[in-house]
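Reviewer 2 asked us to include a model.

Predict the structure of this chain.
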Amino acid sequence: MRIEEEEEYGFLRANALGLAFGGLFLVTLLGQGISGTADFNAQQVANGLEPVSFAQYLTSSSFGVDVMENWQSEYLQFFLYIFATVWLVQRGSSESKEPGAEGTESDEAQKLGRHADGDSPAWARAGGWRTAVFSRSLGLLMGGLFLLTWAASSLAGWAAFNSEQLGQRQDPVSWVGYLGEAEFWNRSFQNWQSEMLAVGSMAIFSVYLRQRGSPESKPVGAAHRDTAQTG
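Predicted model (structure tokens):
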């Protein structure tokens, strides 16, 4: 089926969403690097220091911490939303299951084991630990990516913090010491709260507002109370 679809639509059309956002990611990351270099060098000059090259900035802790802080907050958002929507519902939202459908659902509904289709993934049919892991693989991946990017963010932030400490003739701190610094948690909560706001807003707004043709929206004519419908 997948081969037939690619032959019918072509690779670019069949994968347009992923390719478009992949391209936008690279463009915006490049834009962040260029503007970040300019901003960093303006601060360097203001402090009587030598400006750095674009390549030097891209490998600096300043750039690393800015990138990792954003990445880890995004993966935290998806991790929490994936698991929360298993058990929590929002009546009328296209982002929610129907009230009463909370939970992991039956094997039949999820097409597991003997209920699997002929083209179901092998681990959905396998049973045991493989099916248990595969059944939670998306959330586990998002949780793992959050932890990895959080660790990278803390290490990059630690390096940037100590660079500022040394520039101000103050003693550097250990990584564990940096985790107790108000700056670290201030930067983290700045990113986290915005993600919680965005997800919560989307769940509520999709009850009353529509976007014709989008799978993130209910059909335009659907009642506000209709839940788990997509247009």
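The first helix runs from residue 2 to 9. The chain has a mean pLDDT of 90. We have added this to the supplementary material.
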